[in-house]
Design brief:
The chain is an alpha/beta fold. The protein contains nine helices and six strands. The longest helix has 19 residues, at 109-127. This is AB hydrolase-1 domain-containing protein.
């Protein structure tokens, strides 16, 4: 299961994408990709999945919400197969979960944006309610874009190891992303909008031991409706199947619509939160 995160970000579109006067990330200084040593031990994600399977009886007691629709978006080079564990977990909590239904995520954000907007629109129309978005890695970047251009359809955004902030070069997967996407550099201002304030509650779940993206690119801008939740000892490949991340995701989804209260970092996995 390969969910490397790479970002070439979103396009100028609609109200939230109308201004192009933001400062470019290149002028703000460069972050570096994670050390090779961290990248080489990303295989520990298998242990995180095993931990989730071993704690299923505990996870059944995770906070429950109102059962609204949740769209789960996979990371770069991944598909809906990679998000099956978290979707199954949310199904057991009675949420109406949906995969993205687009096969393997090959990036191509500028080409995919209308497809993703259509997918969101279908789920919203069917349920008649706002949809929460859970995005793993690059999927989280997509989720933030959707929240910016369709706040009337999005209830909340939860990202897992998503490099939406700071420098797009701070990932070990950038060259591969550029090769497969073939879209050229991000358009001026797009990255800053993705990294900025969102009109809906948003939680960024990350790990400082990420071996694919520099963890500093996962830090949400301070806001009354935003937060950053650290998962200790997690990996990039494993954060989307990590039991502590599952619990935090459930807790965030359980918040009543239109409200936001910071994550308490409590519960059976409290020691896992930084």
């Amino acid at each position: 299961m390969m969910v490397a995160a790479a970002i070439n970000a979103a396009t100028p579109k609609k109200r939230a994408f109308s201004k192009q006067n933001a400062k470019s990330p290149e002028s703000a200084g460069r972050l570096k990709p994670p050390p090779l040593a961290l990248t080489l031990v990303e295989g520990r994600g298998v242990v995180e999945l095993a931990a989730t399977l071993a704690t299923r009886s505990i996870l059944r007691h995770a906070p429950r919400g109102d059962g609204h629709s949740v769209l789960v978006l996979p990371g770069f080079l991944a598909s809906d197969r990679s998000t099956q564990p978290i979707r199954r977990f949310l199904d057991e909590l009675d949420y109406d979960t949906h995969g993205w239904g687009q096969g393997q995520n090959l990036g191509k954000f500028y080409k995919m944006r209308e497809v993703l907007e259509g997918r969101l629109g279908e789920i919203h129309a069917k349920s008649g309610q706002k949809v929460s978005l859970v995005g793993w890695s690059l999927g989280g970047v997509f989720a933030r874009y959707l929240a910016l251009v369709h706040p009337d359809k999005v209830r909340s955004v939860i990202t897992l190891g998503s490099p939406f902030a700071a420098d797009i070069h701070a990932t070990s997967a950038k060259k591969l992303y550029d090769l497969l996407s073939n879209e050229g550099p991000a358009r001026p201002g797009d990255l800053e909008k993705i990294a900025g304030d969102l009109p809906v509650p948003n939680s960024s779940i990350y790990t400082k031991l990420d071996g694919i993206v520099n963890w500093k690119t996962c830090i949400a801008k301070p806001a009354d409706n935003a937060e950053t939740i650290e998962i200790r000892l997690a990996s990039h490949v494993g954060i989307g199947v990590n039991p502590a991340a599952f619990w935090a995701t459930a807790d965030r989804l359980a918040q009543p619509e239109g409200t936001f209260k910071p994550f308490a970092k409590s519960g059976p996995f409290a020691l896992a939160y930084g």
